[in-house]
Amino acid sequence: MPTRRSKRSEPPPLAPIRLGPEIANNLAAAERREWWLANGRGGYAGGTVAGTLTRRYHGLLIAPIDPPLGRMLVLAKADATATAGGASYPLFTNRWGSGAIAPEGYRLIEDFTLDGTIPVWRFRCGETVVEQRIWMEPGADTVYVAWRCDGAATLSVCLLANGRDHHGDTWPDGFRPDIATDGTTLMVTAPGRFALTVAVAGGTAEARRDWYWDFALPVERERGLGDRDAHLHVGDLSLVLEPGKWAGFAAGVGDVSADLDAALRRRIAWDRVVVARAAAAEPAFAKAPDWVTRLILATDAFLVARPIAGAPEGKSVIAGYPWFGDWGRDTMISLPGLCLATGRAEDARTILETFARFVDGGMLPNVFPEGAADRPDYNTADATLWYVEAWRAYVAATGDEAALRAVFPTLAGIVAAHQQGTRYGIGVDPADGLLRAGEPGVQLTWMDARVGDWVVTPRIGKPVEINALWYNALAAMAELAERIGGSAAPYREAAEKAKAGFGRFVMPDGQGLYDVLDGPNGHDASLRPNQIFAVSLPASPLDAATQRAVLERCEGPLVTALGLRSLAPGSAAYCPACRGGVPERDGAYHQGTVWAWLLGAWALAHFRVHGNAKAAQATLAGIAAHLADAGLGSVSEIFDGDAPFTPRGCPAQAWSVACVLDAWRTLATAPSAPRRPPAPRRS
Questions:
Q1: d(CA 232, CA 618)
Q2: Where are the beta strands (DSSP E) in 504-548?
Q3: Which of 181, 165, 163 has the alpha carbon at shortest distance from 173?
Q4: Is the Cβ–Cβ distance between 675 and 607 less than 8 Å?
Q5: What does the angle CA 669 – CA 673 – CA 677 come to, to the nearest 5 degrees?
Q6: Helix 489-502, helix 401-420: angle, nearest 10
Q7: Residue (of 159, 179, 153, 130) closest to 239 by Cα position
Q8: Helix (H) and strand (E) counts for the chain?
Q9: DSSP 3-state of 321
């Protein structure tokens, strides 16, 4: 495959994210900050800096037991107690249903660092400092937990396992595994489900079988969900710590090795390759600020294997950790930042080709199944249009005309299906060339919250960003067709008609665009960020004056340092915070909540209007401080609409990371004046 090669550049060294005792010894602050690890298979691990479990999704190993993404919590905790200088020190903390915090091991944390992707704790145990690290094996359902110290100490480690769906509640009667040990290896086998192997380094293992009940999960309580859990005590490890030598264990579903030093070297090398590959592909990254390098490293967590029939090497994107699977819309929006910006063009092609197999009726799935028996859902009006844009970006970055020729019939079929009409009322209105979409009871745009039968933001009619994407897709198809010697004329003609029709979105006062045209109640003038895409996408249907008007209309009410509000304050439906139970949160999800992924589009729109790449790049810098909050080293899904913009939703979200990173890269290499793609011309 032809690829544009860049002069090799050395990546900058990545400084650890460091938290001192003012955060680590403050329970609220330490629980707010979480570490998350991923293995490239959809499996993950996560917890708090304090060491408590505050979510049902926290644990040391959540593995895809039911492929492709039926994930289960298999190892919950490894609670260690150190003995040094004749005294015992708990290196863990638990919250209980009674309200008790016991023990309070977080008070012993001298500092916490995120070293690359590896969380590192240093505990003060009298005159001895004990260090703990946790990491995952890339490409395997294996986690490593290791300790070392600067003196002499012993550790007793209590292992707590489970066998529940990572979304679900524990059912003790349904988890009665066989537990066996040979002294250095512990086997926990749930017949017909999984076998967890724990291999010990620097110590011994003894089997146990007793339940620990009533763990309190305060974040789940805040989210209006079940807030109690229980875990099975399956074994105790006895470890001897010697200066400079690792002791601990590897735990995995499948074969594992207790060679901790080799495993740690592999993880560190993997992280370095992620950063170095991006810097080699894009020299601007070699001079990037540390927070941008952090985003590069964060991208790796979201790229996962997605083997399917006929494509065992298929790949996809996890939309967010811990609870999302792979979504069509999120994948295509994220793909340029996750893959093209980071030197992973082969992965981009594999993802695009994997998704091509699921195009049906000219549509890309919105949600992929987690279990093998589930079917994809196609309730999306925009994922397919983002798919066309992702192909345009891929071909522009790589020049891969062979892949383009192979997929072009699929892309042409997508356009034809939209012109003829497809599911959910999606189709072109011949009167104005615009796409209409929507049926009662169905959510089709990215503003897709639904509570029971209540679609919070139905947006039936002609949504502004759908039509910006439609025009952009037609312009892209003309470019792609011409590239392989095909006829561009039909696409240019359709684009010209859509562009003329798009003028209907301009509000009578010229100050911005309608959010939806021709809805059940007429035009919707709600001030939302969706109109930004009519400025930021490669092909814009607006003239320069209208682009500027859109930017000015949105800037004050919608733009924050962490993203764009989904609805302007002062609107009747505006919600200042996205919290409470499921109905309250879903009702606020797109009604003022700040979305980080929109910040990338804002920066690109800013550049297109003002032509100042540095000023546009500066609008992204608010993300830097956030990387030391919430999901450490990553970017949250959403934030409250009002200050102080508390992080909410998934603590690590693919498009939040990818869109900010790709915008930073685009602006770092931009000319002094904005690049404006030529308007589609008639042939």
A1: 50
A2: 516-519, 522-524
A3: 163
A4: no
A5: 85
A6: 50
A7: 153
A8: 18, 35
A9: strand
Torsion, CA 22, CA 27, CA 28, CA 32, rounded to 10: 90
Cβ atoms of 54 and 43 closer than 8 Å? no
Cβ atoms within 10 Å of 88's Cβ, excluding its own: 12
Q: Distances from the Cα of 275 to the Cαs of 12, 272, 320, in angstroms?
A: 9, 5, 21
- Residue 220 gets which letter from DSSP? H
**Ramachandran bin of 630, using left for φ above 0, alpha for ψ from -120 to 50, beta for the remaining angles:** left
List the beta strands (DSSP E) in 173-243: 178-181, 185-190, 194-201, 203-216, 228-241
pLDDT, tens digit, 9 for 90 and up, residues 84-96: 999 999 999 999 9
Find all residues with CB under 8 Å of 405, minimum gap 6, and list them.
484
Is residue 388 within 8 A of residue 471, CB to CB? The reply is no
Q: Which of 578, 635, 656, 590 is nearest to 446 (CA)?
A: 590
pTM, two decimal places = 0.95
DSSP 678: P
State how far the Cα of 338 lies from the Cα of 274, in Å rounded to an integer.
11
Q: What confidence tens digit (pLDDT) does each residue in 470-504 have?
A: 999 999 999 999 999 999 999 999 999 999 999 99
Quick check: helix, strand or coil at residue 29?
helix
Burial of residue 540 (CB within 10 Å: 0-12, 13-18, 19+) is buried
Residue partners of 273: CB distance under 8 A and separation at least 6: none
Both tokens of 80, joined, read: 């260690």
Query: Which tokens sit at 675?
Result: 């690049």
Per-residue pLDDT reduced to its tens digit, 15-61 = 999 999 999 999 999 999 999 999 999 999 999 999 999 999 999 99
Residue 497 contacts by C-beta under 8 Å, 6 or more apart in sequence?
Answer: 432, 433
17 Ramachandran zone, left/alpha/beta (phi>0; psi -120 to 50): beta
Q: Which of 546, 524, 547, 527 lies closest to 535, judged by CA?
A: 547
Residues 6+ apart with CB under 8 A from 129: 110, 122, 123, 149, 150, 151
Which amino acid is present at 674? P
Dist. CA 67–CA 42, nearest whole Å: 10
Instruction: Count the Cβ atoms, other than its own, within 10 Å of residue 72.
Output: 23
Report yes or no: 270 and 139 within 8 Å, Cβ to Cβ.
Answer: no
Please choose, from the candidates 21, 15, 53, 16, the residue with its C-alpha nearest in 3D space to the C-alpha of residue 34.
53
Cα gap 530→515, rounded to integer Å: 7
Sign of CA dihedral 587, 589, 590, 593: positive
Look-up: residue for tokens 């490894």? 78
Pair 606, 615: CB distance under 8 Å: yes
